[in-house]
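Please, structure for the following, as tokens.
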Amino acid sequence: MAFRTSLLSTAGFLTLVVTIAGAFRLIPDQQMRAELAPSPLAQSLILRPVHPDESVSETLKQRFVVGNALERVEQVRSALGSFQKLTQKSTATVRAGVANTDWETQNLGFHNWVSSIEGTLHYQDYQIKKLELELAKKQYEDREIDRLTLEQKMQAFQKVEREFQTYWNSYKIAD
């Protein structure tokens, strides 16, 4: 009898849970997913200045551009070179417990890490300029831009294409 009561209680409880869960489901699955999914058209960035002396526009146009990023890569490369020299001059006791002081990391890893970042920046710039040129061609066909604007996009693409090709030709993986 106790088993039967327990079984009925469990069945009743599960029925209650299913009923309550169904009551809370006021929006069908597809509609709910559509409402919860971010709309690509509705997304916009809310950017606030990251420093009191610099506007958002200045940050985006001066700090977050390929040329500046490549300069920062050179600074990182230089800092890692200094770390290598410091590591070579230090004793094993000083290096104990300090990460990235082994020969492979300093002579292979540092080179490969920085070169991969640099290559990514060049390649992404190439891809962006290529897409901008494709868009400009379409806009020119649709008479949305003039010939001069299209030629400027072509020149910008050709310049970055040469730069990426030069980088690619000089790129070596340390192993």
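Residues 1-29, 31-36 have pLDDT under 50 and may be disordered. Residues 36 and 173 are 44 Å apart (CA to CA).
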